[in-house]
Model the fold of this input.
Amino acid sequence: MDLYDACLQQDAHIRAVIETLVSQILGDRYMPARQNEKGKYIKDVAQTRKIQGSQFDKIIRGIVEAKLFGYTLLEIMPGIDPRTGKLAEVNIIERRNVLADQRRVVQRQGIWLPGWDLTQPAYSRNYILVNTGDLGLFSATTPLILAKKFTVANYVNFSHTYGQPIIHGKTVSESNADRKRLANDIANAAQNKVLVTGLDDEIDIKTFTMSNSEKIYTSLIEFVNREVSNMILGSESMAGATQSYVGSTKAHQDIFRERIEVYRRFIENVMNEEVVPRLVAMGYIPSGLEFKYSNRIEMNNEDRIKLYGLITDKFEVSADEIEKEFGIHVGRQLNAMDMLASGGNGGSSAGVGSGGSGDRRIMSDEEYYRRYGRSRGSRIANFLKDA
Done:
């Protein structure tokens, strides 16, 4: 655990990767829901407000860290914050004092007594041990980060030694005092910006030729960052690396989303098997609820706009849905009103122009929309009138 924490605290890349992972896990994506007779999960809005808070985010973060560290011991206190009405205190017990396989907490690291048995009823209600059964993903990233740490130190020494040019001064004087005076003048010239020499003195700057020797260090650093990103996120491009072509980026995005789904399924299982029953026993939430992540498609803003453009052209979407997704207040849906006015089937007699009858319906609706930028049968008003 000392090695894990040292690598996590001192390496910026793995910290950034963990924050990227947590950003996809937390937020408004999860909810307590009930399953109806058709198998659809119905969100409980009132209970969702109760579980979306800082203390509940700490529970989810602890479950995610169990994948990284190997285990997490959560302490959920039964008290309710009177100001917010949510859980007042959730703690993650120091992992150095937890013996996960023995399900025991010790007062001093490495010493069996005194200790507390988590299987006893007095502790099983408020303490949740999330144990993956292995040493966690950090067991594979820690040796790489330690190697990277020494590589960066060597790279700094290499840069200091070979990165700066050497200023070579020549003087005809045989006096050591004159040579030292010239050396001091050269050393101070970087600050003074002025250097006065004798008539026969020479100043020469010796620069090193480019040999790409620094590639030994930079390639190893890039290798470690790539391996850490692949281990935790499933893709290095999701941690800031650039790809050579668009297809590679899309492939990495798919792998990243699949990895996030695995993390979310793990969280759902722990929540429904360990956390939710204890919250029900505390009287914090009613029984019959399940912790679920929403089935919302993960995509960027450009793809989301294209999707909503395709949906609103074929289905009527409420203004509340647009406002919730994009934060934009909209009125009535014009293309839906136009389709109702044309008979509800897209207007088979609508032409390519404004009101013509030249549409022989050779193209599909999607091809028509891509070509003309509007749905088949939608009316385009002509605001240019003859005087």
